[in-house]
Specification:
About 5% of the residues are buried. It is built from four helices and four strands. The mean pLDDT is about 75. It is globular. The chain is an alpha+beta fold and about 130 residues long.
Length: about 130
């Protein structure tokens, strides 16, 4: 994953966070649209929108079993999220993301500007990198 990120960003990188999101189809909890940068900027001090998120799915992902929805190219625009990030938000944000969530009008604007959204259908074991 590190080599893929270095290739995409054109420089050295480091891993700032890793985790497993266990989300079985039809049983998993929701995970609202959110801005990773907004959270990382406020909580971790990340200065710029220069990051790569990677995922490796462990099971087949289809539109009917709750895949991640993506907005290709959305990294080109910053959307500020309403409200303030609570202190120690990291303690609960991985169970339910409520801060760093864009409002509906901003999300509609972003999806329209970027040309639409796609679902993250892909086969197990494949790496998907997102700028």
């Amino acid at each position: 994953m590190v080599q893929a990120a270095q290739q995409l960003l054109g420089s050295e990188v480091y891993i700032t966070q890793s985790r497993i999101n266990f989300k079985p189809g039809f049983k998993g909890k929701e995970f609202y649209w959110h801005s990773d940068f907004e959270t990382w900027h406020v909580e971790d001090g990340m200065p710029d929108m220069r990051a790569v998120s990677c995922s490796i799915v462990l099971t087949d992902n289809y539109e009917f079993n709750g895949p991640l929805m993506l907005v290709p190219g959305s990294q080109k625009w910053y959307i500020s999220c309403p409200g303030e990030t609570p202190k120690e938000n990291y303690k609960s944000s991985l169970q339910k993301q409520e801060s760093g969530v864009p409002d509906n009008d901003s999300m509609s604007w972003l999806v329209d500007k970027a040309g639409g959204s796609i679902d993250a259908r892909h086969r197990p074991g494949r790496l998907r990198a997102l700028l």
